[in-house]
């Protein structure tokens, strides 16, 4: 049995990642904003839903295929955009995208990724989405749209929950800030993890590959690049900008970071084809609701056609079943695949996707569901309702 095969679930892969990475790098993946209330709640909220099974249904075959961003997916899961991926493993975005393709799943590349979108598209024929921002320099955003079209990206995900950076206190404590102010304890942790630190020091250059051409003075060091991109975040972005982007792109477009039914409706009215219900994995507004708790209201607001993707907190295949029953088209994961990547590179991502897929299919089988289209709200019940309706009257 290989080391990765000993991982039975996301939690095991997380522990393997924690052992392999210097603590500041692990905390950068694992942490959230402020008190990490939303980070924790995103995952625990799933436990508040019970799965209500059908019995004596023929579950000898189960249909799980769907379409997300208009693209086929073997089952209703996609991989969320995550920046700085090369920091977690030298094989970076290519490894994640290849594993996603093998599993028949959509991959999304972040604007803050460490692989050029053209290079990724050339190496990877599978369905892919680019995560975009509306920058102060609208020309930079328009340039991304043109590059994505030329490279053959199938969809865009516009992230709207980052008018400023969230307050990630774990990164402050470790000194993993911009510019880095690593503490002695952090430096020691790098020294104690040579299997990470040596390849990181000697491997391919680490930068924001999709925007580095914008900075003439790269000789001034990578920090000038981070300064440049940091200065591009625009607090004045509004719905008119979404309308503009939808026109420019004229293809599948999801707004990532929508939380309420009213904003979801507005997103569709502004030209988006879907929404990703998300609080950025609890990394931005701490106290924001758990995405799973918003699915029903968002689905009711937008109707049947748009993609409604539940992004954040998924740690078990059964979580995906619950989200679908509540009305989601699919779920999206960030940390789980990064744990897999950090734990073991591309085979680690493979292991993670295999585990989640097995859990997903097993849950459907046990719940008596032989086609994901059969799933409906009657298959899921919130604990608060179950307890109040089941308890005797005072
Ligand atoms: C290390 C890390 C980096 C991320 N970078 C980005 C990013 O560049 N753009 C973005 O829209 N979301 C980013 N996210 C958020 C993810 O896309 C996603 O919303 C979140 O991870 C979902 O929560 P989960 O980690 O519980 O699955 C990042 C998340 C993590 C953990």
UniProtKB/TrEMBL annotation:
The keyword Coiled coil is annotated on this UniProt entry: no
Cofactor section: FMN
Domain FMN hydroxy acid dehydrogenase: 2-385
Residues noted as binding glyoxylate in the record, renumbered to the chain: 28, 133, 168, 280, 283
A GO MF term: oxidoreductase activity, acting on CH-OH group of donors
Residues where FMN binds: 81-83, 110, 131, 159, 256, 278, 311-315, 334-335
Keyword Oxidoreductase: yes
InterPro entries the UniProt entry points to: Aldolase_TIM, Alpha-hydoxy_acid_DH_FMN, FMN-dep_DH, FMN_HAD, FMN_hydac_DH_AS
PROSITE patterns cross-referenced by the UniProt entry: FMN_HYDROXY_ACID_DH_1, FMN_HYDROXY_ACID_DH_2
Keywords attached to this entry: Flavoprotein, FMN, Oxidoreductase
PANTHER family assigned: 2-HYDROXYACID OXIDASE 1, S -2-HYDROXY-ACID OXIDASE-RELATED
Protein name as catalogued: Lactate dehydrogenase
């Amino acid at each position: 049995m290989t080391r990765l095969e000993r991982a039975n679930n996301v939690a095991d892969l997380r522990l393997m990642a924690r052992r392999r990475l210097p603590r500041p790098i692990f905390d950068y993946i694992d942490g959230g904003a402020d008190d990490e209330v939303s980070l924790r709640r995103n995952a625990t909220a799933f436990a508040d839903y019970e799965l209500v099974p059908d019995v004596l249904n023929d579950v000898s075959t189960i249909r799980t295929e769907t379409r997300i961003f208009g693209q086929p997916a073997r089952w209703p899961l996609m991989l969320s955009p995550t920046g700085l991926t090369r920091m977690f493993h030298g094989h970076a975005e290519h490894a994640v995208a290849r594993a996603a393709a093998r599993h028949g799943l959509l991959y999304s590349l972040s604007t803050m990724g460490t692989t050029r979108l053209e290079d990724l598209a050339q190496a990877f024929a599978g369905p892919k989405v680019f995560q975009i921002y509306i920058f102060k320099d609208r020309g930079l955003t328009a340039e991304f749209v043109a590059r994505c079209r030329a490279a053959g990206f199938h969809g865009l995900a516009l992230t709207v929950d980052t008018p400023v950076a969230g307050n990630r206190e774990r990164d402050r404590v470790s000194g993993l800030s911009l510019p880095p102010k690593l503490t002695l304890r952090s430096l020691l942790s790098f020294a104690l993890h040579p299997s990470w630190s040596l390849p990181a020091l000697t491997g391919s250059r680490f930068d924001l590959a999709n925007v580095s051409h914008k900075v003439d003075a790269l000789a001034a060091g990578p920090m000038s690049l981070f300064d440049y991109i940091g200065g591009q975040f625009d607090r004045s972005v509004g719905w008119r900008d979404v309308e503009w982007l939808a026109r420019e792109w004229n293809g599948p477009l999801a707004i990532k970071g929508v939380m309420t039914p009213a904003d979801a409706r507005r997103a569709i009215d502004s030209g988006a084809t879907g929404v990703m219900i998300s609080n950025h994995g609890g990394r931005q507004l701490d106290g924001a609701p758990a995405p799973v708790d918003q699915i029903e209201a968002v689905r009711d607001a937008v109707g049947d056609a748009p993609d409604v993707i539940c992004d954040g907190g998924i740690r078990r295949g059964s979580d995906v079943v619950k989200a679908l029953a509540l009305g989601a088209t699919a779920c999206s994961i960030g940390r789980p695949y990064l744990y897999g990547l950090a734990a073991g590179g591309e085979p680690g991502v493979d292991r993670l996707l295999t585990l989640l897929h097995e859990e997903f299919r097993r849950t459907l089988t046990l719940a008596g569901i032989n086609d994901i289209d059969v799933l409906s709200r009657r298959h899921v019940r919130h604990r608060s309702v179950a307890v109040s309706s089941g308890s005797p009257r005072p």
